[in-house]
Write a structure and sequence with these properties.
single chain; 91 residues; mainly alpha; 81% helix
């Protein structure tokens, strides 16, 4: 049973890392406006909005700066730390 739970936690950890990279790429795409208009840009924006979208409704942009990506990265990092703690607790 612990092996199955450990495997689920490992997969969740990989998903969290993937979302962190997607959000970083999404934020960097703002420097290249043409990139956001491509199919890859739309795909990355769609994936990033899964996490960033709800945060944007709570944390409004301040002027021209949108802090929702930073908040999303912090929350994903906290979730990953929680998974690490859970992994050590199971062992």
């Amino acid at each position: 049973m612990n092996q199955i739970l450990a495997m689920i936690i490992y997969i969740l950890s990989i998903v969290l890392i993937a979302f962190q990279w997607i959000i970083v790429i999404w934020a960097l795409m703002s420097w290249f406006p043409g990139l956001r208009d491509s199919q890859v840009g739309h795909f990355i924006a769609h994936l990033a909005n899964i996490v960033v979208g709800p945060i944007q409704r709570i944390v409004p942009p301040l002027g021209m700066i949108d802090f929702s990506a930073i908040v999303a990265l912090i929350l994903l990092n906290l979730a990953q730390q929680g998974l690490k703690f859970l992994t050590y607790a199971l062992m």
